Amino acid sequence: MTVGIVGLGLIGGSMAIDLKRRGFASLVLGVESDPVNAAAAEKIGLVDKVVSFGECVRKSDITVLAVPVGTAVRMLPEVLDLFAAESGTEGRGRGADSCRKIVIDVCSTKEALVKAVHYHPFRGRYVATHPMAGTEYSGPWAAMPGLFDGRACIICDSHESAPSAVRTVGELYDVLNMRQIFMDSASHDVHTAYVSHISHVTSFALALTVLDKEKDEKHIFDLASGGFSSTVRLAKSNADMWVPILSQNRDNVLQVIDTYIDRMRQFREAIADDDESSVRSLIEDANRIKRIIR
């Protein structure tokens, strides 16, 4: 199995490490637009070879799009076009059925991606996936073995993908020790807005609030405890990745932000009124999250 990873950052690089070490891939090819990152990925052994986008797709059994979602929306149809060109059928007859190549993405939003190729004759060779793992760091230096172990991977709109492609991708995520959850792309984008995207927005906002209020940054470092550090950790995340995510999932994110602002207003009013009973009630209601997250 030859696996091509387009985008050799935290997610792509970590996948490359474990797919090779655990025997799923005999050869890992990489595509990286940043020459410094490309050289680093090759030097530290994330991939066997850095190649061009076209060569990667042609030589890979599975192509992984581990790039920001805005870039993935542009690249995905190009990959399927290359599948069609290689088969020489452009989807006519049994060309798409006989194709054994697969492309997946690992992006945090899905609706725009699946819509971009909904009518493509080789749509069945695409499996929409979202491995729910990561850190606040980026680039090839952030890649690590075991990043995905025990985490969940969302596979979206699997009914639109060829069963053989879904099975092979399932085997890939089994090798990464991930739990697979199936849902439609619209539900995925709603859920990730609540469990992931709002966390990043609030972390960005908190960091801006503290930086604006505390002009002497030395005091931030002196007084920051575990609670503050863990809450603001996500504010270190890369803007190149998060700007397109928030743009692509705008409607869902805005709905969650509005709900969050309402809850913040409840806290503000209770604290302003010195209403300890209401503050206690809000905190105890929030404590119910312990039933879900331990």
Description:
The protein has 294 residues and is an alpha/beta fold. It has two domains: 182 residues, Rossmann fold, CATH 3.40.50; 103 residues, 6-phosphogluconate dehydrogenase C-terminal like domain (6-phosphogluconate dehydrogenase C-terminal fold, Orthogonal Bundle). Helices cover 53% and strands 12% of the residues. An eight-stranded mixed sheet has the order 3-2-1-4-5-6-7-8, sandwiched between helices. Helix 8 crosses helix 12. The protein is globular and about 70 Å long. The model has no long low-confidence stretch (mean pLDDT 91).
Write the layout of secondary structure elements.
Elements: E1 2-6, H1 10-21, E2 27-31, H2 35-43, E3 49-50, H3 53-59, E4 62-65, H4 69-87, H5 95-98, E5 102-105, H6 111-116, E6 126-131, E7 152-156, H7 163-175, E8 179-183, H8 185-213, H9 217-223, H10 226-232, H11 239-248, H12 250-272, H13 276-286
Parallel strand pairs: 1-2, 1-4, 2-3, 4-5, 5-6, 7-8
Antiparallel strand pairs: 6-7
What are the salient characteristics of this protein?
eight-stranded mixed beta sheet; 294 residues; 6-phosphogluconate dehydrogenase C-terminal fold
